[in-house]
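Follow-up to my post from last week.
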Amino acid sequence: MALQARVAVAEHSSSSLYAGFIPSSTNHVRLSSSLGSLASSSSLIQGDTLRSLSNADIGYRIAGPKWGRRLGSPCPALSFPVKASASATSPKKVLIINTNSGGHAVIGFWLVKELQSRGHDVTILTVGDESSDKMKKTPFSRFSELRETGAKTVWGSPSDLSSAVGSASFDVVLDNNGKDLEAVKPVVDWAKANGVQQFLFVSSAGIYKTTDEPPHVEGDSVKASAGHVGVEEYIASLSFSCWASFRPQYMVGSGNNKDCEEWFFDRIVRDRPVPIPYPGVQVTNISHVKDLSSMITLAIENPDAANGITFNAVSDRGVTFNGLVKFCAAAAGKEAKIVYYDPKAVGVDAKKAFPFRNMHFYAEPRAAKEKLGWKSTTNLPEDLKERFQEYTAIGRDKKDIKFELDDKILAALQTA
Amino acid sequence: MNFHSVVPLSLEACTMSNMACASLKSYNGLHKIEMYPHFNKSSSSLLAQPIRVSRAHQRGGKCTITASTSVESKKILMMGGTRFIGVYLARLLTEAGHEVTLFTRGKAPITQQLADESDEDYKKFSSSVKHLQGDRQDFDGLKSKLSGSGFDVVYDINGREGAEVEPILDSLPDLQQYIFCSSAGVYLKSDLLPHFETDAGDPKSRHKGKLDTESLLDKKGVNWTSIRPVYIYGPLNYNPVEEWFFHRLKAGRPIPVPGSGLQITQLGHVKDLAVAFLKVLCNEKASRQVYNISGEKYVTFDGIARACAKAGGFPEPEIVHFNAKDFDFGKSKAFPLRDQHFFTSIEKAKKELDWEPEFGLVEGLTDSYNLDFGRGTFRKKPDYTADDMILEKLGKKVIVAA
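User reply:
Got it. Predicted complex:
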């Protein structure tokens, strides 16, 4: 008789109210008001019956072959997803080690809010000093919103966590900071020594090897030299009760630290041409950060289901550069003019001239969907409308911006 | 006959950890679809029983497709079935114990022996499959041929227009299921991909007839299922997909690819498609549902050229990119695939039908090469008119065929 297991998973939505949970704070999470096409009700639902579980599905280790139909090494202690419901999942004490800059900073900001709204007890440790200039940018400048939910905000160093959090104990630690073993090992070791049950790591989808066959799916080859890979392997080797890794790509969402859609808005509102590396059909994945927040939350609330899994933390749609320009223009209510260029031919560093990797860089969240019953709620055209509203609300459309690299590109194309 | 001719493995030869791999790969004939989850001998209490579609030893015997359901023998009418998909599907169905009748005009042979099919297996198949001669465009003739025929299920493999469905439905009022071969070509082009089954269709597309058929089936209240393949490939493919590349690779010619070659599409092996068609038979979950069926991964145009080269044991191909707008190829087609991103998510089928593709791309193209092109068989002679125009314009030496 084939093994079957029912997994009850919470369907996440924009509402902060979940059946069975009493939010620990009266302040609701200010999530995007735009509901994606996959937006769901806020009631807890019974997940679909998973297809017959094999040992391969359970406790798959990243060192093994492709997850899913091919085999990983069988998990010594057979476990299968437990029935998780609002009442069954007890509140967790979560420590997030958060980066103080870059694209991933916003993940911690949203995750704290979501976890607090679901009754969990969160401490977010931002690396560095509270007085640092870096803290003047979002999301850090808005950390009062986190304290309003009841979360603790502290500052410190990953290599001296005891100083920052004292004798506090945690069920879950999420490292959303390090890119290599040097940065993360101290956190991992501290967590292991302090009885942390579940260790989560925000890795990167950038570690996948380029391929003729997109998308990047969990189990595909990764660049052995990538720092994140060493971290994932180290965590896996330490036998936490549960561990998981999340590989994001690009995100939009209020409180972001690194420009994403802004790059396009900057040009569109000023009626400037938008220079796109030829041919513009490159596919990338732009998620609303709430997708990552909901995925990590599901993993925290269903640790057995998430155990030993690397998750692509992305939305379930790829978008082309051309498409992204179109959506940004629509959000801004304007027409956009695209000019294509070859970075090498015009002599610019594509990494500096354009916010996304100049290639297909496209992962899909297959593990999260299959293992956690997770659903994406990113709706890029709608999300960008909301982002544009904030873009203008903070006055960025009036900001005086220099477009040096753009001008260089345009000049080169003129003379071509 | 090996369904999976590339890697013939015997179960005994496999180590424990490879067991499931082996079980998935060692198709001993099309009829045997073994899908057991890996089982760990040391925890025998958790031993999962193999889920088999076994060769029916008796006519009309029961067969199990899933662990929980069994499909009793059905009288099946297949519209078409002599060229490509049906060739494999009819075999799966007869082996599963169903009675299969192919409805064709009779212009092509009703059955053909597969390259890796034993004479014995072929004899068994060809003697068990039935033929009903007729022209499905002759609606009145079709109705009179089907009235009172007692078919339980229709597999409509070659239907194109909604109107073609009506005479069949009218003459088979007790029909249990109408399974339609549609196309992912119905999807409206989008900047957000992949296409999910819930995405909008394009009422202006070349495949609008397929979309109309799906709507009509839904309106008629019959229990219907629609399958939307993307690009199908495999031995006996009559659409020059892999064949187009193989011709050029064999001739040592460069492969002309429009644009950047970064366009992403999706190829699905015909045998995986046939299994999907089998999985929806009398499957409650599939009632009034649409499923995208294709390969697990997508592939760029340049990637297809490289994968075909690997499959046929050719050296790394020379790919020549050209701007299609610079040419007027007339009637000659410069490239066999639509010049755009075109791929779908197969997660619905994987989740609901407990189906998944067995062939990876290179694996599947190798199967196609070994059982078809590599043996010297193909459907269309190569036409290098467009190739030569491109090469000339780009200042490349035009190769004269040896």
